[in-house]
Amino acid sequence: MADDDGAVNNTVPPAAKRACTEKIKVLVTGGTGLVGRALESHVISDPQPNEEWIFLSSKDGDLRDMAQARRVFELHRPTHVAHLAAMVGGLFKNMKYKLDFLRENLLMNDCVLECCREFGVSRCVSCLSTCIFPDKTTYPIDETMIHNGPPHDSNFGYAYAKRLIDIQNRAYHEQYGCMFTSVIPTNIFGPHDNFNLQDSHVIPGLIHKCYIAKQKDEPLTVLGTGSPLRQFIYSKDLARLSLWVLREYHEIDPIILSVGEEDEVSIREVALMINKAMGMKQGIQFDGSKSDGQLKKTASNSKLRKYLPDFKFTPIQQAIDETVQWFCENYDTARK
Ligand code: NAP
Ligand code: GFB
Fold this sequence. Notes:
The chain is of the alpha/beta class. The chain folds into two domains: 14-189 and 232-261, Rossmann fold, CATH 3.40.50; 202-230 and 263-295 and 314-329, Alpha-Beta Complex (UDP-galactose 4-epimerase, domain 1). It has ten helices and twelve strands. It has a six-stranded parallel beta sheet with strand order 2-1-3-4-5-10, sandwiched between helices. A two-stranded parallel sheet has the order 6-9. Helix 1 links the parallel strand 1 and strand 2 (51-55). Helix 6 (202-216) packs across helix 8. The protein is globular, with a radius of gyration of 19 Å. NADP nicotinamide-adenine-dinucleotide phosphate binds at residues 29-36, 57-59, 62-64, 84-88, 108, 127, 129, 185, 187-188, 194, 201. This is GDP-L-fucose synthase. Belongs to the NAD(P)-dependent epimerase/dehydratase family. Fucose synthase subfamily.
């Protein structure tokens, strides 16, 4: 069954069906990003009388700065926080700016979590990533393995900053009883992504390149060999799951939000899906001089499945079709 916005329906119980009278005010850091915009659309489609949502941009305050972060919390006095704000980027941006990824994210996370404590926020959900897991590991990776060894060298700055959120959550709980947790999504994509040709993740980057290649009647150039494997999650599915986490998940320990291991695809397969969605007549070619990054980071979604056995993810070709359509329709204003 499909929603009005075309996304596949799933079995996360609509909050409307639950008796809930507690007033909550949710502050979403990074509310203007890929995930923030998807969450906003989902919240608007399922409004709850007891919930008020505020979606922040960096223009509302630089969350690397404690004084500015405190001003934001003072102004809004949230009961709940979805902490999405981060310095984010694909493989090639991560390889270039390791120190910036480490420092900016450490600062942002520390300011946000400390403000959550100071202002008595009752629940905070922060966003980690499956790229933070150890590089040399057994598969599938699960939530218990975050700190078992060094992450892949290509993004160690980002990875160590994100790992520390899990450490902070435990320490805030043990010392102050705070209920702060985290989610671990795989690679995300969808409308409102960053489609920059150099800095973006692979799907938005290839969509933009494909758009240009189609106009020039040239093949799509895919960086690396195309053999690395990834699990991708559509931002609309992640929004539904994140909302469930905020409302219903009560552990401090993180939870992986991912499609199953059987839905892992190669970069080559993804490029072919993008070509198909774009109606490209030219094929694809590979630039083997560019990095492949991590060959795989196969994650288990068993914990998620224990909570939500019937959740249905949008099929990846449908999600890519929708994202390509959104990009073509919003070409002039899309982030690129
Ligand atoms: P995004 O599209 O790049 O958006 C980043 C958001 O963070 C924007 O709203 C931005 O605000 C805000 N931000 C950046 N620096 C800030 C600062 N100094 N102060 C305040 N706000 C700041 O990111 P996303 O892809 O939605 O990522 C959301 C979360 O998911 C992040 O925590 C990320 O690490 C995680 N994640 C992403 C992926 C992925 O594939 N994209 C995968 C796994 C996990 P402005 O736009 O207003 O500047
Ligand atoms: O999404 P992506 O940049 O990030 O994907 P990671 C990188 C993979 O796609 C590599 C190939 O195998 C690249 O060789 N690729 C092919 C391309 N063409 C392109 C292209 O035009 N652009 C990009 N970006 N890649 C990131 C981490 O890793 O995952 C971040 O570095 C973050 O920290 C994110 O957490 C979720 O999956 O390799």
